[in-house]
């Protein structure tokens, strides 16, 4: 079966009047297997509202995970959510891509409001 990424607008709860633009993606092979996507969200006036980093991967410790991070226009981490399984496993568990997207919507607010590295945003 061909890999089908999530509908990012659903996960991020992007308002219909906003525009979500993909800035790029990066993939890597085994043993650290995964893919990352980078998106910018613009409001109806064209102003940058947020930047997102979404991932589906097996990390250096061999743990499966997928999730996302939302950064505000100033580059500060505003929200994040992660599940301990790959996207395809989440789709299988939730029995549909739509249900998996809804499961990824839950956002956790970071414990610190300190700005994170802009390296992620520049990718």
Automatic annotation (TrEMBL):
Q: What is this protein called?
A: Uncharacterized protein
Which organism does this sequence originate in?
Methylobacterium ajmalii
């Amino acid at each position: 079966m061909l890999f089908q990424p999530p509908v990012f607008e659903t996960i991020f709860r992007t308002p219909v009047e906003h525009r979500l633009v993909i800035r790029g993606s990066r993939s890597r092979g085994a043993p650290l297997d995964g893919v990352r996507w980078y998106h910018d969200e613009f409001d109806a006036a064209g102003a940058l509202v947020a930047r997102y980093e979404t991932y589906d991967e097996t990390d250096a410790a061999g743990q499966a995970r997928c999730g996302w991070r939302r950064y505000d226009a100033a580059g500060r981490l505003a929200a994040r959510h992660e599940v301990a399984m790959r996207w395809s496993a989440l789709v299988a568990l939730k029995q549909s891509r739509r249900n998996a997207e809804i499961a990824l919507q839950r956002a956790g607010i970071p414990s610190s409001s300190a700005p994170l590295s802009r390296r992620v945003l520049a990718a």
